[in-house]
Amino acid sequence: MRTLSLLTTTAMLFLFGAWQSVQAQCPCPNGNNANGPFISGALMTPTVTCYEDLEALINGPVGDPMTVSAFDATDGFVPVCIVSAPPANNCVGSIMIMVDAADNDGNCASNGPFAVSVIIQDNVPPVITCPGDVTIECDESLDPMVNGNLGEATAMDNCMADVTISYSDITISVTPCETVIERTWSAQDCGGTATCVQEISVQDTQAPTFTVPADIVIYVDAACAFNADVTITGDVSDESDNCDPSVEATYVDITNPGSCVGETIVLRTWTSIDDCGNSLEQVQTITVLDNIPPVLSGCPSDVTVQCYAIPSVNDEMVTYVDNCDPTVIPVVGMEAIIPDPNNPSPCIEEILLLRTWEVADDCGNTASCTQLVTVIDTNDPWITLCPPDVTVNCEDDYSSASTGFAIAEDSCS
Question: Bridge partners of 188?
Fold first, then answer.
């Protein structure tokens, strides 16, 4: 019975290069002698597609003019084995192999080892499968070994387990924001080359990034103006873009009134746009406050007056103006009697008056001034009418009720 069991071991021996003896696979302890089987070579130079087909060549159908066989007078047809061959190669063309055969008694072929000329001809190209078309960002690598998003071609071959695969790129279109690359994958063996094309679109779809300055509070000046320059309110930082190295953020301000006159809310919108129109917006809030109090004018100085000459609190024209409201506004004063530490027991006419003028602007900033009015009584009273002289008896009532009262006046009472 014929067998193909020698193929695997034989093929493994071929991988080591050099012509190698495989006598162990064709056991014949008696060696080649006249009692051994007779090897019949192929009538025509056989052609195989793959190196691995050599085993089928030497043990093909009996009588096939393209195969090698061995016949023994006692055992009939016996298996033929390859005892030496060049290294495995599907691309060598014509090669010479040495074969032998052994009968059941341990005799090798009478005409062995037998030389057989073989042509290896692989004319079937590999079958290649391309990865799908893909879109990547402009900062991604075009090397498929680095960037797994690109994928790699695969190939199958009728003879070779591992097929050499390569690729080449050409740029087929370039626009400011997209480059299209045509990648041609190639798989090659002795039978030819198979190719397929993958299209790689390189785009920029990612927006720039930056850090917006923190929200901030600033204050108006004496003219109710404010300076919101970036040197005061802060500038963006960490600006970057995956494709555009020159990206730079700009801003637009929207100003809204605050809760009082002099307060302003500035919404500063920072925008960064790259060359492909990808943009990022972030908002910084700038709160402008008025912390300057109003200015009072016309505040009177402290005075000392006679009790009969006390001026009215509203006789003084006290006014105020505010840095954020130019209107001159009169201020109403308030008055209170306070103890006089220098005169703990004054007469009723001598008092201290504390007058206060206080104002607050629309944002709650306050200003005030005071006046101390010391009221004194230094004038003597005077008699305006004396009762007439009278003569009374000693036993008469001579009290003022009978004799009359004097009438007096005083400037303070």
Answer: 164, 193
